[in-house]
Design brief:
Blueprint lengths: L1 E8 L1 H5 L3 H9 L4 E9 L2 H7 L9 H8 L8 E10 L1 H9 L12 H5 L1 E2 L5 E2 L2 E3 L3 H11 L27
Antiparallel strand pairs: 1-3, 1-6, 2-3, 4-5
This protein binds inosine-5'-diphosphate and magnesium ion (MG).
The site of inosine-5'-diphosphate has 10 residues, from loops.
Length: 167
């Protein structure tokens, strides 16, 4: 089945200059990148993205991690990959959630680590189901930022907005 999936290169990935390595590894899948951007994650985006984990003991540190507060670098790279079996292919290359248990040749196995606090610092996020992918892609991207018509859209009236232009 052709499907799409959200990948996030987390702040440790950017801080450690692993962006190129991660993209090279993911290119083995022959999937298409249909959206890509660098994002500064705020509380609302972080907490919505990880809402399903809010009762976990590591939740507040996870929020600090994805916001870049553990790496004094607040950037993440968000990507949408599309193609046959995209979710499984990307998760296989990403590796298991726990970097210690991840296949050593997976991204998380090769580059992840477990912090003294116990948090898994594992370089990448990858959606784990079609429903999760849809929720996450709609959270991280606007329709016009993706080059395919993935999901139904509607016209939204925007009134008297002010936006930044080049001076
Ligand atoms: P996933 O990223 O493999 O889908 P999730 O269960 O969705 O795993 O957890 C989101 C993130 O929370 C993980 O990527 C990891 O950074 C962190 N995490 C998950 N489970 C644990 C845990 O048991 N201990 C420490 N950190 C965890
Ligand atoms: Mg997950």
């Amino acid at each position: 089945m052709e499907e799409s999936t959200l990948v996030i290169i987390k702040p440790d990935g950017l801080k450690k200059s692993l962006t190129g390595n991660v993209l090279t590894r993911l290119s083995e899948t022959k999937l298409r990148i249909i959206g890509a951007k660098v994002v500064q994650v705020d509380d609302q985006l972080a907490e919505t993205h990880y809402a399903h984990l809010k009762d976990k003991p590591f939740f507040s540190e996870l929020i600090r991690y994805i916001k870049g507060e553990l790496h004094s670098d607040s950037r993440v790279m968000a990507l949408v990959y599309w193609g046959e079996d995209a979710i499984r292919k990307v998760r296989t290359i990403a590796g298991a959630t726990n970097p210690e248990e991840a296949d050593p040749v997976s991204i998380r196995g090769a580059y992840g680590r477990i912090l003294t606090s116990g948090l898994f610092e594992n370089v990448v996020h990858a959606s784990s189901s079609p429903d999760e992918a849809e929720r996450e892609i709609k959270l991280w991207f606007e329709p016009e930022e993706i080059v395919y018509d993935l999901y139904p859209v509607k016209s939204v009236q925007v009134q008297e907005t002010t936006k930044q232009g080049w001076a």
